Amino acid sequence: MYFWNPQAGRQGDEEERCCHEGQVLSRGAELKKQNLKRRCFVSIPFGTCGQRMSSVSKPRVTVPRRQSSSAPSSAAVGSLECATKGKPRPSDRLNPKTIDPFADHQKAPSAFAAIYSKGGIPCRLVHGSVKHKLQWERLPETIPFDPLLITLAEGLRETKHPYTFVSKEGFKELLLVDGAEEKTIPMLPRLVPALKTALMHTDAEVFERGLNALVQLSSVVGPALNDHLKQLLTSLSKRLMDKKCKDQVTAALQKLEQQGGRETLGIIKSKIPIYCSICS
């Protein structure tokens, strides 16, 4: 015979109820996982959960462009460049980019530069720490003035180193030797045109070198320069109107008057009426 135990029946009911609740809970967890999978369109790899979904972009596809038939061919471009190459444009003078820095723009050397490079001037430049000087191959007293003095006078219009220094110092040192007056006076008809060229130069430094050379020449030859002075006063009268050169030209005219004698004042007045004599 079997006896019914009420406590055993209750325990069985509780076990069945717990199993049923566990199945319901596991079924609900599976449904939540499926819903999450459906909502996610892109799978996120491990370690990138903090990144935004918008950062994922589609790969770009490049489509090759077709060349338009209106584009000029290389042959047409070459013919166009050849046609326009020989005709300079007006803007080329104002645009420095059109200048070729590698082109050969060197001018022919001047007469003084050519003679100096060939060793025609018997001196060389010695570079010093403070100032430069000339070293003569032999004593200047033994060197003939003709044609060396004229060559140095022509070199006064040079604008490049060392020609500027050699011409200026060489002209000055030759006029300081003994007997320079006797050697220089016969050469005045050829010396004056060279000095005139330097005095008419647009460069201020070239004009200054020519003016100093004129004063040095006047101190050596004295009144003998009066016959050639009119050729030089024309350029001096133009520079006298310039405020930058006025004092320098006035001082040079005063020295010419002192070294040239009484006749010099009349010659200066004939070309420069506004000149005031230092003797009056």
Condensed summary:
It contains eleven helices and two strands, in the order αααββαααααααα. It is an all-alpha fold and 280 residues long.
Give structural attributes.
disordered N terminus, elongated, 280 residues, 3% strand, two-stranded antiparallel sheet, mainly alpha, 52% helix, 11 helices
Total strand count, please?
2
Number of helices: 11
Strand order of the largest sheet: 1-2
Oligomer: single chain
| Rg, nearest Å | 50 Å
N- and C-termini, Cα separation: 172 Å
Would you tell me the structural class of the helices and strands? mainly alpha
In terms of DSSP E residues, the strand content is: under 5%
Structure description:
The chain is an all-alpha fold and 280 residues long. It contains 11 helices and 2 strands, in the order αααββαααααααα. It has helices spanning 6-39, 74-85, 111-117, 145-154, 163-174, 180-184, 188-199, 204-221, 229-240, 246-260, 262-271; strands spanning 123-126, 133-136. A two-stranded antiparallel ribbon has the order 1-2. A hairpin with a 6-residue loop joins β1 (123-126) and β2. The N and C termini lie far apart (172 Å). Mean pLDDT is 76; it is low at 1-5 and 40-56.
Topology overview:
Layout: H1 6-39, H2 74-85, H3 111-117, E1 123-126, E2 133-136, H4 145-154, H5 163-174, H6 180-184, H7 188-199, H8 204-221, H9 229-240, H10 246-260, H11 262-271
